[in-house]
Design brief:
mainly alpha; two-stranded antiparallel ribbon
């Protein structure tokens, strides 16, 4: 019997390629950053510690998440869409890890809980990976009733929404705690944790949602807006790390001067807004594309 075809929303290849490229560049920059820190921390050779486990795990986790996602979807959609979905799910897997790591960090602040094993950072990674595998199985199995594309959309919206809310609460709590009684309130509103982690991602999301063509459903527009916002956030995070690496190469006096003028925040904001604007300037007719999926 011939399978019933369903219409599934997919992003145009230009948007997918931009997201994939930014994600790869961000991973390469972060890898250089961690390798640089490891080489300076252990100049006489790598040794087992909580820091080395965390650093190596941070390097390996994205690769493991991507490989798992690619294998999970390669039989269901074409190669390019598989590559995009695997990249997107890798970012979602890392977001799950952030949630688990935050929960573990809060738990271990309890003075009654002492766990000093060098393998401690691996626990949150293992838990996050187990949750990620469960999520992948749920998506693939439920795709018999609903297209994988639709499931990935809803997963992306839900997970990234939860991460943004928790991240916002965490950053605001930290900033308010540090700026209580501060004379210069502008230090709060110009801080990297406020501008890069909260304000700009929210602006990206809202702007994309309302600027995108109204021909798509609300869910499709929201999903597209989330992808645009994620691209901007990945760009900004990569820029912050890249500028940090550059600052470490400069003389101390010059590096201090650039820190004073919030060079990292300014550079990240400019590049993030630029990439986001380029995505929005993509021809409107390419914003919505329907694909027949089994």
């Amino acid at each position: 019997m011939k399978k019933t075809k369903k219409s599934g929303f997919v992003l145009p290849k230009t948007i997918q390629l931009t997201f994939i490229s930014v994600a790869i560049i961000a991973y390469i920059i972060e890898s250089i950053h961690w390798i640089n820190i490891l080489s300076r921390t252990y100049p006489n050779g790598l040794r087992l510690s909580q820091f080395s486990v965390m650093a190596i795990g941070t390097l390996l986790l994205p690769i493991i998440l991507f490989a798992t996602s690619f294998l999970a979807y390669k039989k269901n959609i074409n190669k390019f869409d598989t590559l995009f979905n695997a990249t997107l799910m890798t970012v979602i897997g890392l977001a799950i890890y952030v949630l688990v790591f935050t929960a573990e960090w809060k738990l271990l602040q309890n003075p009654n809980i002492i766990f000093e094993s060098p393998w401690r950072p691996a626990i949150s990674m293992i838990v996050a990976f187990a949750l990620f595998i469960g999520l992948q199985l749920l998506i693939v199995k439920s795709s018999k009733r609903t297209s994988i594309t639709k499931k990935i959309q809803m997963t992306t919206i839900c997970i990234m929404g939860i991460v943004f809310i928790i991240n916002t609460i965490t950053n605001l709590w930290d900033l308010v705690s540090r700026h209580v009684g501060s004379i210069d309130i502008m230090n709060f509103f110009t801080h990297q944790q406020f501008v890069i982690a909260i304000i700009l991602p929210l602006i990206f999301l809202v702007a994309a949602y309302f600027i995108l063509p109204k021909t798509a459903s609300k869910t499709n527009r929201l999903f597209t807006a989330v992808v645009y916002a994620l691209t901007g956030v990945l760009t900004m995070n990569a820029t912050i790390i890249a500028t940090y690496l550059v600052l470490t190469l400069l003389p101390p006096s010059r590096s201090t001067a650039l820190h004073i003028i919030e060079f990292q925040t300014i550079a990240a904001a400019i590049l993030g807004v630029t990439i986001f604007s380029i995505l929005l300037l993509t021809p409107a007719q390419s914003k919505v594309r329907l694909k027949k999926s089994h």
